[in-house]
């Protein structure tokens, strides 16, 4: 188990990073600024991360691990023929916890676009995996594009509004979308 002081320092560094990126943008953030905001010295920062890119990648891994755990639960429910709405209700506490815990980190990570780091692509890859498990085949490019838009759109909504839609809202929206294609 990690020492509590190490976890507190990690949290302070990540919180400082999120605050600075939201306020100034990723390119303007430096290790010195992160250390100052976290009230640590630069050497302490370097004991935890090699640079701001490493910090972003490790934060991304934390979020995607939580997301992947939830997707695995969704796949397991689908394999038991649990409907989407029932699965949503089952996973609702986990989804709420994910949003509450990682909302600002997700906002920051989605805003960082680098050659070696693409959080949005990582989320799409995880979603594609889950869909292929549920359908027992890889989705076509068209299906994947629709699912990407749907999942990213839902995420944008939740991040903007700060809360999940109700089950009734989801059922109504699915019904309306199906009417569009009927």
UniProtKB/TrEMBL annotation:
Family annotation (PROSITE patterns): HTH_TETR_2
UniProt GO MF annotations: DNA binding
InterPro entries cross-referenced by the UniProt entry: Homeodomain-like_sf, HTH-type_Tx_Regulator, HTH_TetR
DNA-binding residue intervals: 30-49
Entry-linked SUPFAM superfamilies: Homeodomain-like (SSF46689)
Top-level taxon of origin: Bacteria
Keywords associated with the record: DNA-binding
Domain HTH tetR-type: 7-67
Name of protein: Transcription regulator
């Amino acid at each position: 188990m990690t020492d509590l002081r190490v976890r507190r320092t990690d949290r302070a560094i990540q919180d400082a990073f999120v605050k600075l990126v939201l306020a100034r943008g990723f390119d303007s953030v430096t290790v010195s600024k992160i250390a100052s905001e976290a009230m640590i010295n630069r050497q302490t920062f370097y004991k935890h991360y090699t640079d701001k890119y490493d910090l972003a990648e490790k934060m991304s891994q934390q979020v995607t691990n939580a997301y992947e755990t939830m997707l695995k639960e969704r796949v397991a429910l689908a394999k038991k023929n649990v409907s989407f709405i029932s699965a949503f209700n089952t996973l609702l506490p986990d989804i709420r916890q994910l949003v509450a815990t990682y909302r600002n980190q997700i906002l920051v990570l989605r805003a960082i676009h680098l050659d070696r780091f693409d959080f949005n692509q990582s989320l799409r890859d995880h979603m594609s995996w889950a869909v292929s498990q549920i359908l027992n085949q890889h989705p076509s490019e068209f299906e994947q594009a629709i699912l990407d838009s749907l999942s990213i759109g839902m995420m944008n909504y939740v991040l903007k509004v700060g809360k999940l839609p109700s089950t009734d809202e989801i059922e109504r929206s699915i019904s309306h979308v199906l009417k569009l294609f009927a």
